[in-house]
Amino acid sequence: ITYFNKFYHMNLLLDCYQKAGKIAAEVREGARKKCHIGSTLFQICESIESEIRKRGAAPAFPVNVSLNDIAAHYTAEPDDNIAVNDTDVLKIDIGVHVQGYIADTAVTVCYDPKYDTLVRSAEVALSEAIRVAKANMKASDIGRVIETTISKQGFRPIQNLSGHSLEQYTIHAGRSIPNIWTIGSSFNLAPNQAYAIEPFVTTKDGQGVVHEGKIRNIFGITSRKPTKDKEVDEFLADVWNRFKTLPFALRWLLDKYEEKKARQYIEILIKRRNVHAYPILVEGNRKIVAQAEHTFIPSDSFIDIITL
Ligand code: MN
Ligand code: MN
Predict the structure, then answer these.
(1) What is the spatial distance between Cα 72 and Cα 161, in angstroms, rounded to a whole number?
(2) Which residues are known to be catalytic?
(3) What is the rounded distance in angstroms from the CA atom of residue 61 to the CA atom of residue 246?
(4) Which of 107, 114, 199 is closest to 157 using CA atoms?
(5) Which residues surround ligand 1, an ion (CB under 5 A)?
(6) How far is the CA of 193 from the centre of ligand 2 (A)?
(7) From ligand 1's centre to the CA of 208, what distance in Å?
(8) Which ligand lies nearest to the CA atom of residue 172 in the structure?
(9) How far does the chain reach from its first CA to its final CA, in angstroms?
């Protein structure tokens, strides 16, 4: 590979990231400003995903609409009639991809002012983390800034949720950016590599840890090994063609499949370990959680916050 090709490729890739980031930011700000009281989680997910498509990109994962003590990984079921009320704290986590290059960003909305400081602490922790982030720094130093910022405001970070590196068609690409200061193994942020920073915050009486809940409504293909059942294999091939390694929801399959049939295929594929079902993540003491998230790319001279 020549230098010319290397930089040419780098620029194409950055264009994709910037396009994805701009759309993700626009859609997130739209979701922040809107009043969601009375809307169902189904309506919120579908409307945000359609805003992404309208702008010429695709959702990188089903919009996560996690309420109150659910920290992450809930998306609407096809007939989801859970409605947002004025005491809810709702994390809206949005992924946009352009040719597989992903922008990952989140906002927390709430309508009861008693949660404003909690939501604010996630936002402040994110902006402090972004302010210190640069190429070649230790990821654990970002964790320290996030933890200190949250603690100073009288709250608690969720210690087993973290930011992450991103690769083409891969949301969690192997490197974690902690939300707390961690001893020992850390790594240095590589220049020209995409990362997401996402502080999750709970109250002092929270456990500061999330556990897996029973609900699983986000899926991802983990293996394309044939099942020998023609119908299931055709379904798997179709899902692969549409989403590759990116997560998907049952809602997204109902254009082509009957709900009952699609559920059946997914169940078979989960049992055969072709598909992974992501459980919702719930705060250990069932306390309220807030989140904020940006995706950024550090270079040797500056950092590009693509979802700003
Ligand atoms: Mn996210
Ligand atoms: Mn993320």
Answers:
(1) 9
(2) 93, 104, 164, 172, 198, 293
(3) 6
(4) 199
(5) 93, 104, 106, 293
(6) 14
(7) 19
(8) 2
(9) 33
Tens-place pLDDT, residues 214-254: 999 999 999 999 999 999 999 999 999 999 999 999 999 99
Q: Which of 296, 251, 300 is nearest to 130 (CA)?
A: 296
**pLDDT tens by residue, 251-298:** 999 999 999 999 999 999 999 999 999 999 999 999 999 999 999 999
53 C-alpha vs ligand 2 centroid, how far in Å? 20
Q: Which residue has the tokens 């240095």?
A: 188
Q: Which ligand is nearest to the CA of 171?
A: 2
Rounded Cα distance between 192 and 211, Å, is 33
Query: Distance between CA 42 and CA 261 in Å, rounded?
Result: 20
Q: How far is the CA of 264 from the centre of ligand 2 (A)?
A: 29
Query: Which band of pLDDT confidence, cut at 50, 70 and 90, is reported for residue 7?
Result: confident
Distance 1 CA to ligand 2 centre (A): 32
Nearest ligand atom owner, CA of 105: 1
3-class secondary structure, 290: strand
CA of 294 to the centre of ligand 2 (A): 8
Q: What is the dihedral of CA 10, 16, 21, 23, to 10 degrees?
A: 160
Beta bridge partners of 289: 202
CB atoms within 10 A of CB 287: 18
Q: Which ligand is nearest to the CA of 73?
A: 1
